[in-house]
Amino acid sequence: MTPVSFLGLVLCRRLAVEHQDILRKVKDFRIQSAVCTLEADREVVEGNVAAFIQCLGLASQDDSAEHALEIFNSLVRERVPGALQHSLGRLGLRYQTVASMSCVFLLRPFDTVNAYLQGERQFNSIVGEVVGSWTLGLATIPLAVAGVLYIAADRPAQRLGFNTFTAMLFSKHAVFMLLVFGSWYVCNISIEKARKRTVWIALCASIVAVLTVATAYVYLRPSMHHVQKNSIGGLSERLQDGQTADRDAAREADVHAPEPRVQWV
Asked: Shortest CA distance to 102 belongs to which of 180, 191, 170, 19?
């Protein structure tokens, strides 16, 4: 388990580095510095973006193209980080993604259900198996992945190797894994004890509650970058209003259009 965990740390570090790099590029975004496949097309592309900003009413027709581009840059820096975080999560992976990878553990209780139907297990065995397996799949593993991503994101520019930084990184990772999976192991032990003595139920419930709250806090707590659900400058509304106006104008033109005269010979 430990070698696989350390390998996961290395892979997650690459993911975390890419995630941090994306956020950094968005934070410092300037369309003037963007790479253009054909440099001759840059003027056309920037002109279209400037016209787009002016069409939205975010810049007047009298403003220069450079001013319109700066407004576009500000919009990207303001709104794209929140959209990226909504899509990728604060740490690079959303809870739904991690939980879907560990959902295989949610099926483990069905073996116990089958044994119960055959009269080989008691009902409390099913309850214990459900609590243990679902806590592992929905809380413990997602919390472990979040912790690994957080640890892996430390000093992304620093290379791994035979140095103090790598030793500290792996040490923090090992301690965190012991805490997370150690708590889950204690939870399973308390489940086994609770089948015989109900006094252990409180400890089991407390551990499950702590793991659940910690997972919810890591993945679901409010972000610093709020996603603005309305489109840029009300683009959708503007387009709909424009289409409605065009239809009304066309209908009005059809009403007032003179009827064609047919001359019979």
From this structure: 180
Structure tokens belonging to residue 176: 């965190």
Question: Running DSSP on this structure, what letter comes out for residue 140?
Answer: I
Place of tokens 């991690």: 98
Going from N- to C-terminal start, the domains of the chain cover 1-88, 90-222
Residue with tokens 């972000």: 223
pLDDT tens for each residue of the chain, 265 residues long:
556 777 777 787 888 788 888 888 888 999 998 888 888 899 999 999 999 888 888 888 888 889 999 999 999 998 888 888 888 877 788 888 888 888 888 888 887 777 777 777 777 777 777 888 888 888 888 888 888 888 888 877 777 788 888 888 888 888 888 888 888 788 778 777 777 777 777 777 888 888 888 888 888 765 544 445 444 445 545 545 555 655 666 566 565 555 555 455 4
The identity of residue 112, as a single letter, is T
